[in-house]
Amino acid sequence: YCGECFKACPMVPYTDLAGADPERVTRDVIDLIQDKEVRGEGAAWAEACMMSGLCVDACPEPVNPRTMLAYARTKLRIKEDGVAGRKAESGEFFKLFSQTLKLVAGTQMEPERFRHLTAVRRGKKSQADIVFYFGCNLLQTPHIVFTVLDVFEKLNVDYVVEGGAANCCGVNHLRAGDEEGGGRMKANSLSHFAAFDPDKVVTFCPSCQMQYTERPPLGKPTDMPFEHITRFLADRVDALKALYVRPVEKRVGLHEHTGLPGVNEDVRKVLRSVPGLELVEIPQLVQNGYQCPTLLLEAAKEEMKETLFREARAAGIDTLAATYHSCYRELCGEEANQPFAVCNFISLVGEAMGIHHDAYFQRFRLLGDIQRVLDESRPFLRSNGMDPESVRDALSNILYGAPAAEPS
Questions:
Q1: Measuring CA to CA, how many Å separate 285 from each of 11, 132, 210, 304, 326?
Q2: Which of 12, 96, 215, 278 is the most exposed place for a label (fewest CB within 10 A)?
Q3: For residue 60, which of 8, 103, 98 has the smallest C-alpha distance?
Q4: Distance (Å, rounded) from C-alpha 105 to C-alpha 113?
Q5: Helices (H) and strands (E) in the chain — how many of each?
Q6: Rounded to the nearest 5°, which phi and psi values hold at 178?
Q7: Is the torsion defined by CA of 92, 97, 103, 105 positive or negative?
Q8: Which residues are CB-contacts of 121 (< 8 A; sequence separation ≥ 6)?
Q9: Predicted structure pTM score
């Protein structure tokens, strides 16, 4: 109960816990996990945890405080509604989440391609050196997946691609308080990956990376190595350099978060390998969360964004590159309000290789007009068996946060 993890937490200043006794708060979290009577400070800290990972580095013991806080939040959810209530709620959320992914992906790709990306084994080779696991939400910005796969092809990587709801890591169930359901989904996905007898699983999503490497699944723990895409590419920069066919004459600022060790250094190494690209350092609040969408403390998110955009403008960059697809998805619409473009880092690597895939999600955000979105995506929607008019409100909610306005 030394409290060093609490002292290191960058979210505490954004809460009412500032000035609380670190040892007392930490002890309260442990009591919460052990179903003992608690004062409430531990619960408040668990709710404030945005998984920056600074607590992991600060802990003097072989303990992962980030995982500890995640389990404390699970306990809180169970206390609120009971195990049955949590299972029912997580099931409903996952159903809606799966429908959302299919809808957004259905505006951007053919059904055959969607099936190939999300199938568990059907139509895929029986063995591969690498499983590229992109998680679930990357389906909303599939140009990123397509670019990674093209880069793999050029690198002659022996791979299979896995993702989508049938290969869920279970993190959303855990967040909802359904520990059993999340563990079961995670264990199922691990069995899917293991069936290919891979040397490693290469991930893109930071949530999935942490879920697989920090939280044990139900049943036998896996010894399957997981590696983030940034490390995979950083270890192959010489091979990448040999494949570049054009310079990328851009001043690029990198949007960063703490959370996954080494990622910021690895993506810098990759971007510095791109010919013509000038990487510009931008002061920013890297400790505010491990990705943008899950930074739920509004004051922390607003300060992070304000600092990022202010410093990016001051640095005179022409492109802001996000490491994670999740941050890109949240920030890409800001391109309309800022004097620089917004992209995911892999798009810059692809550009240097002569690879291009349309960033439909970003284009739809920037259009700001659901009718134009429906008109442009109509062929994809029809091929996926979706009536454009019937999905109007749902798609408008996803893209713009509100149902479609009544036509004038």
A1: 11, 30, 21, 5, 17
A2: 96
A3: 8
A4: 10
A5: 19, 8
A6: -100, 80
A7: negative
A8: 192, 195
A9: 0.94
